[in-house]
Amino acid sequence: MHVFDAAAVHAALPWPFLIEALRKAHLGEMPASDVVVQSDPTGGEAQFVTLPGWAPGGPIVVKMVGVFPHNASLKPPQPAVQGLVALFDGKTGGPLLVADGAAMTARKTAADSALGAALLSREDAEDLLIVGAGALAPHFAEAHLAARPSLRRVMIWNRTVARAEAVAAQLREKGIDAAVTGDVDGATARADIVSCVTMSDTALIKGALLRPGTHLDLVGAYLPTLREADDAALTRGAIFVDNRNNMQGGGDLSQAVASGAITWDAVKADLFELVRGERKGRTGADQITVFKNNGGAHLDLFTASALSQTLG
Amino acid sequence: MHVFDAAAVHAALPWPFLIEALRKAHLGEMPASDVVVQSDPTGGEAQFVTLPGWAPGGPIVVKMVGVFPHNASLKPPQPAVQGLVALFDGKTGGPLLVADGAAMTARKTAADSALGAALLSREDAEDLLIVGAGALAPHFAEAHLAARPSLRRVMIWNRTVARAEAVAAQLREKGIDAAVTGDVDGATARADIVSCVTMSDTALIKGALLRPGTHLDLVGAYLPTLREADDAALTRGAIFVDNRNNMQGGGDLSQAVASGAITWDAVKADLFELVRGERKGRTGADQITVFKNNGGAHLDLFTASALSQTLG
Fold this sequence. Notes:
By secondary structure, chain A is α/β, with parallel strands linked by helices.
């Protein structure tokens, strides 16, 4: 059995390889998966989530992830979300690999959005705006650059400017043309691809400002109470999701449905339908496309399977 | 995070250490645990079982185990049961260790019975009979010798004699006085402790033959259709179980209840009650004690916690 720590996970899954692995995986069936959420038995806020999944004819994966909101206040601080992903041979049950959970989550989440951008964004997109400067932000910048090589520049906006500066510096070290903007509205109006990776509970992206042809990627609002883009973004754009089974959990679409701005019928396709060619993606250079990334255990399985391919 | 392969699991958990760790763990609460059983999505016989548990104020453990009946016919053959145990810090969710599942299961199962024998068998027990010669048999011999140091001799009986010979030879290499018997009835009548670790579906132990004072350990009959000891063994003996929550699954007690030989009220105590002194164990040198070991996810958690203590 192989063990991949965080650095080994990132090294083993270059973006072009992982994006293509996810694309191919979406040609197959959605794996069967379960979820067990356990709360701290002493009554604390912490939760531990276990997600076992089994791909038909493929491997078995178990994602185990702790969500401990108070970890940031520990001395030294620890990430709130930590865990492991374990992969087993679907023909024997034998353990194949164990991988750092936070790195796997970062990798699969960014590659999921990057696959969406590869399928939906304009082929001549040049300007990428990343909204948010948390741990995932640099991964989202790099994954989009891999998915759409025409991109020339990355702008970073974040409520706390110093963190945006840190992400931009980190990207520049890798030779990427990255800069910080203090004007999210202006940057929204200039970008060809906007990727939102925040914990915002109010819309940061005004749909009225989006240029025709822009691709809007929404990642952060994974709870019904969170929101990254306003109703206008959803009514102006053609809406896509990563998978229909999971699309009602996040706030962007569910709040827009609740307000009456859209109905669930507005969702044109998910990644399975797009990859298989069952439904159309972008229909013209002036169309605004919106991709809501809700994630899911199947992406852990697809990503762990890709990791197992690197074992040779 | 530390990784324990099978050899490292066995080396890190010497029997006296593990038996004492299990004893202390039974002073605390039964951990909250869940179980997810997934069947091969292509319709095969194989199953994959995921058991997450969380001890109040303690660690989180996830046991992952594949049950693949056809592994024995593979070339080369593989064990039918394989898997992993992962342990996480209950205060942060951070991964602490991953350990070979088969070795952890062997270790916890034998130590569970050994704790039963330590609490229930006569202190002057000298003769141990092991019934069955599968992978667990040598572990059960060694664990009982550690739990009851007065034991002088080990007899092994198995339907296939050659496998009993192999287990006896393995024990003799460790300096243990071990021999094979072809006469299970005669050996039953001579033994002070009888430990049954079989997959038998008919009773191998005749209760009428048990000597007063014998301790009978029943491990194998984990399904309602399996059976190791007859009704007479259960009516002559004082019955104990490892935990009451799990006691109705195995065939020995459930078939004896179904036949009317005993009622569930015949179960005098479980390990939690015995360790805490809430209920009595053996009440005299002539009493026959019967311990039904049904296992459970809490023992995986206790054993993984013991393993984490070795990390220092």
